[in-house]
From TrEMBL:
InterPro entries: AhpD-like, Uncharacterised_peroxidase-rel. The keyword Oxidoreductase applies. The keyword Oxidoreductase applies. NCBIfam families: peroxid_rel (TIGR01926). It comes from Falsiroseomonas algicola. One of its GO terms (molecular function) is peroxidase activity. Keywords: Oxidoreductase, Peroxidase. This is Peroxidase-related enzyme.
Length: 207
């Protein structure tokens, strides 16, 4: 049974019971008010996996080495997570997308288009091609062919941008399965905050 004190199907170690390596990691990823998102708390029985997860998350979404804007990376995240029916990731990352866009009507239109699997309602060109790519990679990974990459280039995406989209999709397929597989909920989380875009994997000062 899940509740706010243990919002998952397995035990999550509370902050005040953490020590050593786990306490160090908790202190690194703490958000506003000292809150630790449940997606990170889910690793608490094996803290080394939290370190790997947090580094990957920061790299694919909040690193200055990426060239595409964070709001569009969040679009890829939300579309991948909707495709996987991962309520946790959709809630967190749609809130983050909405905060970045500062346009409630546009954010709402994007969500409705993604929920209907019709991104062409609100995107075209390179962005639409990248969204279709992450959808196919999520739902039909064995069906991927080299022509899928050629289509992205034809739409205007360079290989670095293709890699960024690939990594966002791959990361969210991992995290969606972590969350859905352990029954992790958003109970007690603060939605829509994120670490800053920097070149440091240890910089987690949420905003």
């Amino acid at each position: 049974m899940t509740d706010e004190t243990n919002p998952a199907w397995i035990r999550l170690v509370p902050y005040d019971e953490s020590e050593g390596y786990l306490r160090t990691l908790y202190d690194r990823v703490k958000g506003p008010g000292g809150k630790i998102d449940n997606v990170m708390r889910a690793h608490s029985l094996r803290p080394h996996t939290m370190e790997g997860h947090s580094a990957l998350y920061k790299s694919v979404l909040h690193h200055t080495g990426n060239s595409m804007p964070v709001w569009f990376l969040e679009c890829l995240a939300v579309y991948t997570s909707l495709s996987n029916r991962c309520d946790y990731s959709v809630a967190h990352h749609f809130a983050g997308l909405s905060r970045l866009l500062k346009d409630e009507a546009r954010a709402g239109a994007i969500y409705k288009a993604f929920a209907a699997a019709q991104p062409e309602r609100v995107f075209d060109g390179k962005e639409l091609a990248l969204l279709r790519y992450v959808r196919k990679l999520t739902l039909d990974p064995q069906g991927m062919v080299e022509a899928d990459i050629a289509a992205l280039r034809e739409a205007g995406a360079n290989d670095g941008e293709i890699l960024e989209a690939n990594q966002v999709c791959a990361y969210f397929n991992y995290s969606n399965r972590l969350l859905n597989g352990l029954g992790v909920t958003t109970a007690g989380d603060i939605l829509g905050t994120s670490p800053p875009n920097t070149d440091s994997l240890d910089d987690w000062e949420h905003h």
